Amino acid sequence: MPDIAMKPGRCVRVEFEYIRHGTQALIASLNVATGRIDQATVGDTRTEQDLDTHLRALLAQSPEAPKIHLVMDCLNTHQSESLVRLAAELEPEPLALGVKGKSGILQSMATRAAFLTNAAHRLVVHFTPKHCSWLNQIGIWFSILVRKLLRRSSFKSQAELRAKILDFVDYFNRTMAKPFKWNYTGKPLTA
Fold first, then answer.
1. By its UniProt entry, which Pfam families does this protein fall under (predicted)?
2. What is the reported pLDDT for 11?
3. What SS3 class is residue 93?
4. Phi and psi of 41, rounded to 5°?
5. Phi, psi of 165 (to 5 degrees)
6. Strand ranges inside 68-188, DSSP E
């Protein structure tokens, strides 16, 4: 059924029945210093391998960077074997990583997280605390994407959705990108 048109004093009423053409997963990297999306990957899945491919493309943009800091939430792929292996590849000396699920750095998610958060490494991951995703500025950018592109939109295919998201990333970087200004002072919100 078609949407119900806008009338004076009433916004468009969107029909709730729709045909689902599939979903897409977006992995994006926000540069907090510039406010730009440095890397965006849109695909059918968000697996450990997808994150690895995304991060390798991101790191290829700055191969000489002496230190790389990534802020991530506690999603299991953010503490994966492939991310540990990527971080280990960036170290000047080879590291013994052990065997996933059995020994060494790869033994558990806790040992992998401890390795990834070690400030002595070239690639350092900073995990936001559980239930504090608002600390991760990419979440703010995702809300912009939803408000400006996805809400009240309809896409005829996954390919169209993917193209629109990547076009929005390009548009955002050209016209809207700027560092987010934090203004929370640490004072309680109530008097």
1. DDE_3
2. 87
3. coil
4. -125, 120
5. -65, -45
6. 68-72, 123-127
Rounded Cα gap, residues 133 and 188, in angstroms:
19
Residue 68 CB: number of other CB atoms within 10 A?
A: 16
- Cα 71-170-142 angle, rounded to 5 deg: 40
Q: CA-CA distances (angstroms) from residue 107 to 75, 83, 118, 119, 169?
A: 17, 14, 16, 20, 37
189 pLDDT above the threshold of 70? no
pTM of the model: 0.87
* The token pair that represents 41 in the structure block: 């990957």
| Residue 157 structure tokens | 């295919």
What residues have CB less than 8 Å from 4, skipping those under 6 apart? 12, 13, 15
Nearest to 73 by CA among 144, 143, 136: 136
Residue 117 tokens, joined: 């958060």
Determine the number of helices (DSSP H) and then strands (DSSP E) in the chain: 5, 4
